Amino acid sequence: MNFSDLLRGTGLEPVGGNPEITGVDYDSRRVKPGWAFVAMRGEATDGNRYIDAAIRNGAVAVISDALNESPRQGVAWAVAPHGRKTLAVVSANFHGRPADRLKIVGVTGTNGKTTTTFLIESILNYTGNRSALVGTIEYHVAGKVLPAPHTTPESLELNQIFAEALTAGATDVAMEVSSHALEQGRVWGIPFEVAVFSNLTRDHLDYHKDMESYFASKRMLFEGSGAPPPRAAVINADDGYGVALLLPCWTLLFSV
Predict the structure, then answer these.
(1) Which of 44, 67, 153, 231 is deepest in the core (most CB within 10 A)?
(2) What are the boundaries of each domain within the chain?
(3) Whether residue 242 has pLDDT greater than 70
(4) Using CA atoms, how far apart are residues 71 and 197, in angstroms rounded to an integer?
(5) Helices and strands in the chain: count of H runs, count of E runs
(6) 43 or 105: which carries more pLDDT confidence?
(7) How far apart are CA 216 and CA 207, in angstroms?
(8) What's the CATH code, domain 98-254?
(9) Residue 196, class by beta-carbon neighbours within 10 Å (0-12 exposed, 13-18 middle, 19+ buried)?
(10) pTM for this model (two decimals)
(11) Domain 3-94 in CATH: superfamily?
């Protein structure tokens, strides 16, 4: 695909050419000739510092979330207001939007995500569906058990998993969706079929600062994060925050 095709749905306009793109990455060390490099600010470092390294490795296009970076001569360029959300869209585009052809169940909450996703995967497989699993302990895709560097991987790796699972005949995915992933845009644009909420207890407050911010991140899964809301929700009403998630549903129910 060309650079314009890669950017479809991002709202970004390419400058400096429209080369063929043979790969995408946000890690300059993995970039190969013909690839696009997504330079984005992360938690530990700023990918924009490695634009020139990516170009030396063969990048023919750069998507940067830094307004102060100047386009490089001979390289196609686009400026993104949100690097991770843009990575999510271009990753999906590059892999043929595999999430659109899968039924994805997202499970969020402080405790119980791993157990719940394993149970869902077991039920799906028992009923004859071929499924993939993404979570804290490991990933299951195309009959393989893979190590899990993150509970919810970056969107690039996530779309790679979806594409591989789809090629292997998968119809469904059970995945843990962390509050970090929701907040950072790692699952931006994924059309979840079902959202599941287990509970919310004090955790990750070094990142979210307070419980309300933590809950707001979890709620994104039920509101839709760059995609329509899930078609169905399963919510633990024994948890106070679960009740708060249910209230909008009850309001809608009794208003019709």
Answers:
(1) 153
(2) 3-94, 98-254
(3) yes
(4) 44
(5) 9, 11
(6) 105
(7) 13
(8) 3.40.1190.10
(9) buried
(10) 0.91
(11) MurE/MurF, N-terminal domain (3.40.1390.10)
